[in-house]
């Protein structure tokens, strides 16, 4: 009795012939999901808005690990989460500075208008008090 492993039992050579009429065409295998690792690293290093880039990086690494292990559904799930967090991190990192800049600009414009009105008010008051002294 042969107990060596791995055991490879090959059928006889005669049964290995292929029947040309029974050709099976396999449908294209589902494309492996993208892991978005580069985008996640970019968001983690350059635009880490509320640590969303780091969360996206964690899901990207999980997606890559699942893809390597062959679990395509889990890889697709983690890839989808990584993409969502990357979108949120990128949008937050681009929108937040624009909103802050808009608030600063409107604040400066409002303060300059108030300052101009104050100057006009006090110059008017000063000119009226000069007239009363005469």
TrEMBL record:
Residue spans crossing the bilayer: 37-59, 85-111
Annotated GO biological process: bone mineralization; bone morphogenesis
One of the record's GO cellular component terms: plasma membrane
Localization of this protein: Membrane
Domain of life: Eukaryota
Assigned keywords, A-Z: Membrane, Transmembrane, Transmembrane helix
Pfam family, one: CD225
PANTHER family in the cross-refs: INTERFERON INDUCIBLE TRANSMEMBRANE PROTEIN, INTERFERON-INDUCED TRANSMEMBRANE PROTEIN 5
Family: Belongs to the CD225/Dispanin family.
Protein name: IFM5 protein
Species this protein is from: Nothocercus julius
Gene behind the chain: Ifitm5
């Amino acid at each position: 009795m042969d107990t060596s492993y791995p055991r490879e039992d090959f059928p006889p050579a005669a049964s290995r012939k292929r029947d040309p009429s029974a050709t099976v065409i396999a449908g294209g295998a589902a494309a492996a999901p993208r892991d978005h690792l580069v985008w996640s690293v970019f968001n983690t290093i350059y635009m880490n808005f509320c640590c969303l880039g780091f969360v996206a990086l964690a899901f990207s690494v999980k997606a890559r690990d699942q893809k390597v292990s062959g679990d395509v559904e889990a890889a697709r799930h983690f890839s989808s989460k990584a993409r969502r967090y990357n979108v949120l991190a990128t949008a937050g990192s681009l929108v937040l500075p624009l909103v802050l800049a808009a608030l600063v600009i409107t604040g400066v414009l409002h303060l300059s208008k108030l300052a101009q009105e104050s100057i006009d008010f006090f110059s008017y008051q000063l000119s009226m008090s000069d007239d009363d002294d005469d």
